[in-house]
Structure formats: structure tokens, C-alpha cells
Amino acid sequence: MKISVLIGSRNRPGILQQCLESVLMQGYEPFEVVILDDASHNAEAYPRLLQQIGDKRVQIVRSEKQLGVAGGRNRLFQHATGDIFFVLDDDAVLQSPETLARLAQIFTQYTEIGIVACKILEICNGVQIKKVPFPRKVLRRFPGIEEKAQLVSYFLGGAHGIRRQVIETCGSYHSELMFGEEELDLAYRTIAYGWKIYYEPAIVVYHLPQPSVVGQENHLCTELFHHIKNRIYIVCRYLPMRYALVHLTVWLWIYASMALRARCPMVLMKGIAAGIQLARRTPREVLNHTAMNYLRKHFGRLWY
């Protein structure tokens, strides 16, 4: 079972280097590494890094237009030759040299698993924060649940494994979801097609967050715009009406508060308008009964 490690990067070759070092330490074979240079300002920076590394398993693909998170991952899928795609942020570091081996073991042993979610430890100013695919209320109610391997309803984009057949059957990431909620969109489609999402806490990835590459000026407002737009699209496309109304009410209240704190109140209305426009262009595909039962059983976010 060949694994393709897929990493999108923009203007951060130095940050990418420590990520690559942890990947190339892996004891598992065979694997390849495909890096997307997402329209970086210096087109020569990444080829120089590749030459410095000198590993034939690593290749670089460049886009002259910024594709964003979803579009960038889709471009990487097109160039990957593996049976499993391991998507990794460029500011992430694998904890163990056995990460890929464990990933391959899970996909080999459980043929119904379409996506593997990892435990991500985000390190900010020396403080370590766990990022796991459980709502906060579940973590409070069930202490230690994040240490147990189990089926879940979601995965975090910073590090996740995807079986190639999932992309072939469910489709790639939605390219218009440039930033935010793109994983939720794919998770819903994956579950709707009958695949399962498996959380493996033994696969630990350190995330060393870097400044946003989405927008250079007031990036918080740019990111918030995408979150609002994408949330509206996903709710309108997938959730039954009784969940959708409550879900949107709660999240729009949260986004309104965030917009005020970021001093960009108009981004709320712009995000809503863009979300409605995007939803109108896409046929509604409400999650079926089986998918809804899966979400209820495995802590899926329905009401908010």
C-alpha cells in the first residue's frame, strides 16, 4: 500500500523544511511526498529546498494562481500516485517515525474506513493545546475520550489520511471553499456514501501555527468571511431543515460577535450574501437516514 504525503505551502520554504524532515524519517515504504507551491512570490525558493534535501521521493508542483486550502489539496490529489493520501500542513511535524506505518495498518485492517483523523497538538507560545475531532461539550462530559481510538464524524485538516477511493467516489474538496469548513463538507459526503471516519490518537502531529496566507491585510476578517460563507453553504446543502435553522442561528450569532471584536462588522453581511449565492448554485443533498444516525452516534455536530 503506497502512501502519498501531500503538503501545500505558500511563501514558507523554511517552515516546510522541518515538516519534511519529520516525514523523511518515516520507516514505512513505499511513500512519496508531493509539495504544492501555491503561487509563492519567489518561484525559485521551493526548487532550491528540493535540491538541498536531495531525496528522490519528494517532488514539487507549482501553481501560478493561488488555489487556497481546498483547491490546493485537489491539485495535490491529481499528482499523487498512492493508495492512501496523507494530507499535512506545512507547519506540522510528525511525532513518530512510525506514523505512516500505523496509518497503513489502519487502512489495511479496516476496509470500511475512508478517512483517518489524527491527534493534533498545537503549540502556541510554549502552551500545548489538543486539537481533536470532538465538540467541547463531549470532551467535558467524557474526560479522556480523546485518548481512545474510535469512529468519529469529523477530522482536522492539519493532518489526516484519506483512502483514494473516497476521493474517487465522493469527489474532491469543494474548490470554492477556499478556507474553513472544507473538511466538514468532505466529512458529510464521506459519511453519506457509507464510509467511516476513524480517530487514531496514537498518530500525533505537532502543529506550529504560522501567520495566515489567506489574506495579507486584516487576515482575521478575510478568514471570517470564508467561515461564514462556507458554513451557510454546508448547512443549506446537507442538514435537514429542523437542524439547519438552529445551526445557522447559533453560528451567525457567534460570527457576529467575532466580527465586532475584529472591527469588521460588514464582513458578516458579505459572508452571508456570498454563502447564499454559493448555496443557490448547488443542488440540496440532505443527509440520508443512515448518515444522520451515524452522526448522532459519533458526536456529529447537528444543532450547532
What structural keywords apply?
304 residues; 44% helix; globular; 11 helices; Spore Coat Polysaccharide Biosynthesis Protein SpsA, Chain A; alpha/beta; single chain; 2 domains
Shape: globular
What share of residues is helical? 40-55%
How confident is the prediction overall: mean pLDDT? 94
Radius of gyration, in angstroms, nearest whole number: 19 Å
Short précis:
Helix content is 44%, strand content 22%.
Describe the structure.
The protein has two domains: 3-207, Alpha-Beta Complex (Spore Coat Polysaccharide Biosynthesis Protein SpsA, Chain A), CATH 3.90.550; 219-297. Strands 1, 2, 3, 4, 5, 6, 7, 8, 9 and 10 form a ten-stranded mixed beta sheet that branches. 44% of the residues lie in helices and 22% in strands. The protein has 304 residues and is of the alpha/beta class. The chain has helices at residues 13-24, 45-53, 68-79, 99-109, 136-141, 164-170, 182-192, 219-238, 241-261, 266-280, 289-297, and strands at 3-9, 31-38, 58-63, 84-89, 92-94, 113-124, 127-131, 150-152, 159-163, 196-207. It is built from eleven helices and ten strands. The protein is globular. The mean pLDDT is 94.
